[in-house]
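Thread title: Can someone regenerate the structure for this chain?

I was given the following input by a collaborator and told the matching structure tokens would be attached. They weren't. Posting the sequence so someone can regenerate them.
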Amino acid sequence: MVFPDTQQAVQLLRYPLGAPQTEDFGLTRRPVPKPDAGQVLLRTHTLSVDPYLRPLLAGRYVVPRPDLGSIVPGQGLARVVHSNHESLAVGEWVVGETGWCEYGVGDPAKLLRIDPALSPVSTALGVLGIPGLAAWAGLGTIGRPQKGETVLVSTATGAVGSVAGQLARRAGCRTVGIVGVEDKRRIALDEFGFDACVSYRSPSFVEDLRTACPDGIDVYFDNVGGEVLEEALSLLRLRARVVLCGLSSQYNQDQRPPGPNLGPVIGARARLEGLVVYDHLDRFADFQAEVAPLVRSGVLRYREDMSEGLERAPQAFVDLMHGRNRGKTLVRVGDLS
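Best answer:
Regenerated them for you:
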């Protein structure tokens, strides 16, 4: 197979200050990389646009932030178009660190092979990918919801929150969601089956949350941190569990805000535990075996916010960090036919 000499890519022009802007990024052309022995060449199909990129660009993530002028990092769904390793054949689908570009080189040991027969391949970046795994693992290992309990979930219509809420409801729990705007509240109720949902932007948020959780909460799946977390902590019941999954309220801030008052945690003898999804990658097959049939049958629903064309990636990221997305944020890079 003959490959082009150059490819389109999105490079980092400046580090964002506050909320990201499209001007922080720029299109460029770069050489198509050549795989070494034991590596594979990947053609990117769909990019996953994720909130963690914002703290990564600020130097507040577990890996160093990228240099200015480098290709924006990120995970993607890709196909193997050339292989120098026997474990992956040309034509196979994988998920891995592709970056915001058309072609990338991958180490098979760091790539996740995808079965396109499970469901539409794009779900490998959302409901059947790392976000879905985070929801499944966080509930199963930390939240441990029991029938009849109340489970509160922030970013209830997001890629993680929507799955967490649906899995909690399948466990026999009463589920309450937290979102930002009215149309997301309707999505949480009508599409994802939450029993109640409130907006943190409402002037009556505190009262609304207490009305929605009159007996308190047994599990809180937190994706935002900040003031929303503090209000949720005030509602903890005895022996409650809190899954600390994300801090989206802080990602656009240059300085870390003061922490919440943890007094209610002590009073409730509650358990707070951080969730790092990569600690659970060895359970990915178990996760897919349980959740994929639910997705395929339509029992577990999902939403995708798909943009077309690599050049749309910066705007998709900006929209995500302003809460304008309606579902898992994805960018389709190109036709692989």
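The chain has two domains: 6-126+303-332, 130-278.
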